[in-house]
Each structure stands twice: as C-alpha cells, then as structure tokens.
Amino acid sequence: MFDIATSGELLAEFMAAEKGQRFDSPGRFTGPFPSGAPAIFASQAARLGARVAYAGRVGRDGFGDLVVERLRRDGIDVTAVQRDPERPTGTAFVSYQADGSRHFIFNLAHSASGQQTLDENALEHLSACRYFHVMGSSLASRGAIEILLRLVARVKEKGGKISFDPNVRPELMVSDGAREALLEVLRCCDLFLPSDADLEWLANDGEDTDATVARLMAEHPMSLVVLKRAAAGCRAYTGDEVIEAAGLVVDEVDPTGAGDCFGGALVAALAAERTLPEALRLANAAGAHAVSVLGPMEGCSDPTTLERRLAAAGDIS
C-alpha cells in the first residue's frame, strides 16, 4: 500500500527572467523545469520518505523525459504515468510582478496532460493508499475531473483519506465544471489545506476566516483544516482546538511551489504518524525552504534540510 497517491498535470515550466516581464513582447525565460502542482507535492512527500504513486500523462519528448526522470529520481512510483506518442508535454510560462503576484499561460488542455486516461488496473493501483491528494489546479477539464472523482470514490470505498488543496487559480477556474468539481471534492475531503485566498473564495458574505472554517467543518466530513499563511506560518483547526505554528524567515527567490511543498511535507508527516504540531513545523520549514530556491520542484527538501532550517530559526522542539 502507498502512503500517498495523487493524479494530475505534469508539465515543463518556463520562468520569466525579469520582474514585470510581459507575455506580449519578447523576453528571456529560464527553463524548462519539471512542474505541476501535484507533482511538486508528490516530490516533497517522497523526499520525506513517504511511499508515493502518481498518475498523469506526458509526451514522448524531451520535456516528458525531464518530468518522468525527476519523479522517478525522487522515488515516486510512475507506473500510472502515461507517454503520449502524438501530443506534446504540457507547458506553463510564469511572469512575476512587482507586487509579488504571478501571471501564467498554461498549455494543458491540448497537450498530453489533457489526454490522460485511467483504466481499472491503474485505478486499483492508485487507490491502494492511505491518503489520496487532490489539487484544485488539476480540475481543469472534464476528463481530469472524471479521473479524479473516480479515484476519490474508490479510495473512500477502501477506507483511505482524501487530502485537498483547492489551489484556486482564476486561469483554470474558467473551465467547464471546475467550480462544481472543486465543491464535490470538498464534500469528500478529510484534510483540507486552503490558503487565505481560497477561504475568501469559499466564504459567505460577512464571514471571517474562523467562521468560514467552522461552517465548512460542520457541513463536510473534514476532521482537520490547515490554513496556509505563507511567511506567517499556518493555523490548524481540529474541531476541538486551534493550533498556531509560526513561519520561518527566509529570503524569497521564487514563491512557486511553496504551498505544494507545505502540503507534501504535512501529509507525509501525518502518514508517518508524527504529531500534528511536529507535522506543522515540518510543513512550515518545507514551504520556507521552497521559496529560497529557483524553480518549482527545485525547492523540495529532505528531512536533514528541514531540521537544519528549523534549528537555524531557533525551533528545536
């Protein structure tokens, strides 16, 4: 049995060299980097020792080789990663703005990623897991939604848990059925990992953060909500108590993948049966380390790196 399984977009990412760089005029880009939100999550979890399986689809091209080799090198089971002989590997281009925001151009729907399928053998292979992780960014097409909902249902049938990072991106929420699918996964999840922006998207009029979380926990089966707060750390809601975990101070180089690394470290720690406070510490350290390194998956870290980060921050608990 796997500790964690996930499915979703696999892509090659190119990063603008200059802040404020536009997409409608020539500019320099750095890459390709292996990427995809669930892939970053999976890489971080695997580097912390979790047994991880992945399902996705890439082209039979150099970008696909780049992505698959990175997953394999990190110890991830890629049995369910398909190679498309006709369509290219998906791509993403990202430009960083002066205010810290990012602009993306994705090529997913018409790439190999958009042609992913899931047969019964792959369904059985992946559903034998303790946690199945869903990224909201993966709910970008009818085909991807159908695959993820089938996996969620099978994992729940087998007694596994669903972890869910809504990862709401305006560029992807315009696709047919994405909003409805996100709400459907929310109704099934056991561990919910929103950001402040995600909770704002889900809030009713007049609700503050705590009220939104309380309502979601009352309406859905989730037993744990961990609010990702970037440099401010995180806040965990168990239903009985609220646990605050302070963030780490680092010099930010690249914010891409920080939340995915946070989630990968958190779920890996919980799967290893570490206490919730310990898991929160590791998750904060993973997110902090991720932003200090250029490249979406380049900031994934091992236990020694995270313990060094925590020790340097004075957290030796």
Quickly list its features.
317 residues, alpha/beta, UDP-N-acetylmuramoyl-L-alanine:D-glutamate ligase, nine-stranded mixed sheet, 11 helices, 13 strands, globular
Topology:
Layout lengths: L1 E6 L3 E6 L12 E7 L1 H11 L4 E8 L2 H12 L3 E8 L5 E7 L5 E6 L12 H8 L1 E7 L6 H16 L3 E5 L4 H4 L4 H9 L4 E2 L3 H7 L6 H11 L4 E5 L5 E4 L4 E4 L12 H14 L4 H16 L11 H10 L5
Parallel strand pairs: 1-4, 1-8, 2-6, 4-5, 8-9, 9-10, 10-11
Antiparallel strand pairs: 2-3, 6-7, 11-12, 12-13
Helix pairs in contact: 1-9, 3-4, 4-6, 9-10, 10-11
Write a structural description.
The protein has 317 residues and is an alpha/beta fold. The chain contains 11 helices and 13 strands. The protein has a single domain, classed as 3-Layer(aba) Sandwich (UDP-N-acetylmuramoyl-L-alanine:D-glutamate ligase). Helix content is 37%, strand content 24%. The strands form 2 sheets. A 9-stranded mixed β-sheet has the order 5-4-1-8-9-10-11-12-13, sandwiched between helices. Strands 3-2-6-7 form a 4-stranded mixed β-sheet. Helix 1 packs across helix 9, helix 9 runs antiparallel to helix 10 and helix 10 packs across helix 11. The longest helix is centred in the middle third of the chain and has 16 residues. The chain is globular and about 50 Å long.
The helix/strand series, from N terminus to C terminus, equals: EEEHEHEEEHEHEHHEHHEEEHHH
- Count the domains: 1
Portion in strands:
15-25%
Rounded to the nearest angstrom, the radius of gyration is: 18 Å
The number of helices is 11
Mean pLDDT comes to 93
| Helix content, binned percent | 25-40%
Q: How many strands in all?
A: 13
Task: Give the C-level CATH assignment.
Answer: Alpha Beta
What fold name stands as the CATH topology? UDP-N-acetylmuramoyl-L-alanine:D-glutamate ligase
Biggest sheet: strand arrangement = 5-4-1-8-9-10-11-12-13
